[in-house]
Amino acid sequence: MQHRITLIPGDGIGYEVSLAATRCIEACGVDIKWDNVLAGSDALKETGELLPESALASIRKNKVALKGPITTPIGTGFRSVNVAIRHALDLYACLRPAKSYVGVKSRFKDIDLIIVRENSEDLYAGIEYEEGKPETLGLIERIKRDTNKVIRLDSGISIKPISEFASERIVRFAFEYALKNKRKKVTCVHKANIMKFSDGLFLKTARQVASEFSSKVVFDEAIVDNMAMQLVQKPHNYDVLVLPNLYGDIVSDLCAGLVGGLGVAPGANIGSDMAVFEAVHGSAPKYKGKNKVNPTAMILSGALMLRYIGENKAADILEEAVKEVIAEGKLVTYDLKPDPSDPSAVGTLEMSDAIISKIKENL
Ligand code: NAD
User: Fold this and answer.
1) DSSP, res 310
2) 184 Cα–ligand 1 center, Å
3) Structural domain ending residue among the three candidates 258, 291, 314
4) pTM for the full model?
């Protein structure tokens, strides 16, 4: 069966890592027709828009996209093109696995965590009041009236909305993911003791959803600051974590750090009927065109994509090939060498060639 998938190469190191990923995916024998669309700085040059409607339309049509990292230039009206894509397509679940690979320098072995981050609300909703503006002063006055709390007049304010609707669907996503992938435990991470009406609602909703799964998946709760400490001390005690947007962003980078950093951290943004797969790392502009960076995160995002479209065998082959190349430690990029200045480190292209050779051996 042929799959039609939107490919957004991105910018900065995006072209190199996207090319590496598409070549490795195709080597697994999956029949894919890529619809190549621009977003980011190249789209801005060609179309005058950072996020052309044609890019979103292609994803809406194909329902699946593989996306390279995109730089968000300052002063273009976008906080982040990446966040704008997630919002425009209501990709409410951000899935970030953090898995140990033999050969990747890290403090721990055998970590296998799944971070499920709510993607649509919380402090990332983009509702902000600038210091000194009349509407900000009006809000400060209103808050004094309603709550008798005093906010300094020279404050900026960011709003943190958390709804029952969005909490319900993200926690349900985490439990369904756990069931489907034979995971044992879901931990809800929050700060409900302080933010009773936002995080408190997230936790209360999580408990309700958890009760539906209680015979199959264990439910656990953790306060986010304690969770940060537990994760760096005893990461093996955890399995699937579900978090509101901001904590999810921070904790998923923490977990990427536990398993060796951004070079090996894949991700997916999933909605009710479509998904965009992308590495956790950004466009690292200083490495653009240098054939230097690690393609693993983008290739592993491709493996997540293959599972999403039902190509599980190809995903297994792809992950196994990545695992073997990293474990051998020869044909790997600088960041996977014990000494990053090791002259035997290879480039993005050569590492992806090594992965393709393994795929061909294992097919
Ligand atoms: P970054 O992830 O691009 O780079 C940080 C550092 O991490 C790099 O300098 C490099 O040392 C290392 N690194 C990143 N990817 C690597 C790889 N594949 N292999 C080896 N080392 C790697 O983060 P940044 O510098 O904060 O952001 C640069 C731009 O990327 C910004 O414009 C930001 O908005 C954007 N960004 C995009 C995404 C996305 O597209 N999803 C995500 C994060 C940041």
Assistant:
1) T
2) 32
3) 258
4) 0.94
